[in-house]
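EI: anyone free to look at a 446-residue chain?
SC: sure, send it
EI:
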Amino acid sequence: MTNILILGAGFGGINAALKLSRLLRNRGSSIPLESGEIKLGGNSDFKITLVDRNNFHLFTPSLYEVATIYGLIQDNFAQYLRGSVAIPYGEILNNKKINFIQAEIKEINLKEKLVLTNGGAKLDFDYLVIALGGETEFYGIPEVRDYAFNFKTINDAIGIFKKIQEVYKNYQKENRTEPIKIGIIGGGFTGVELAAELGCCVKNIVKACRLDKKCTQIKLFEASSAILPEINEKQRKAIMKRLQNLGIDVQADSQVEEVGPDYIKIKNRLKPVGLAQLGGELKIFDLIIWAGGVRGHRILENIGFKLTKKGTMEVNEFLQTKNQDDSVNEKIFAIGDSVAFIDPKTQRPVPATAYVAHALAEVAAGNIIRSIKNQPLGSYEPFYDVWAAPVGGKWAYFHFKGINLKGFWGYLLKQLVDFRYFLRILPLGKALRLFFKDLVIFMKND
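SC: here you go
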């Protein structure tokens, strides 16, 4: 029995498990892969085990929709809303030869080839795929965890959704004259998408509650000189114009140094005068959301892997992990947000996107089969010149190689990409139901 253990069932982990299941189900034939072709024998016995702390696969590209949809606070509505982005593993893994275990990982023992869970289970492996995803990086800023809404999980999104309803309900009760202020920290794709959809949500609230159009201010803070540093200036200008049309105040070159219960403190850009350090600028908010960076899972720190400053694992071209002494773990692969894969052309890490995670999963799954058959491994050839940024309502910027579409057509392509992903992990009927369910719910802000 060859035990293949996959830790984490995000975009990388779930696609690695499904790919391995398809390859092993069709063993005995020649299987084409993105990284080449391999031949499988028919006598091997395999076991695929997938471990995740949740019992659902979170479709994170729609998480911003959950946080910003306008509606009443009702438990049954929140449950229905959860179901729009949280796909039960039972629906994905039905009729697949994949064992699923819901558990939190406690320890990874490389020497004994053993993984321990918080529940006391001991899982042995011959091949290991680490796809644990990342954790939110707070950059050592005091009190962010206590006072800002994080934005990474389904519970985070539901929490923001309920807070928005609460803030506007209190605004009406108290007959406030000063505007509601919402601050979002982080000008990457997550922060931009969230800010834009909040702009649409606010317009609906204002209309439904007959409030003044100027009752809300939304500010988006970015520490660097411009939002979305990954894209070019022409693309950025188009997105900036859309944000401005939605009433979003983008404040670049604004490094946050402290967060309080109702304030954000921006680091003073001026140099100290003599020995006196100038204090930062204090801004008051009703709602503060942290959409900052991502770091590697902290469980990786004491295992012996070679890690970057961000806590992500260094891997070779075959996606095998490296030990601290630079030796390679030949039967341990890493994919997704846990990985720092350096693009040889740019000498920079490839971006942590769903598209990249899926590509990494394809290569890792193929290389496990190749390793079992003692065949040469296939290398990962980075390609990530593709992205879609939904910027409020039926407007998105879609980029693929030299193709750039913005507005409704960009939005339409983004929807097709989402549907294509649902088809990869679900049967046609379930994929269609989920896709149209999302459309019906999330069009409320449009």
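EI: The first helix runs from residue 11 to 25.
SC: 👍
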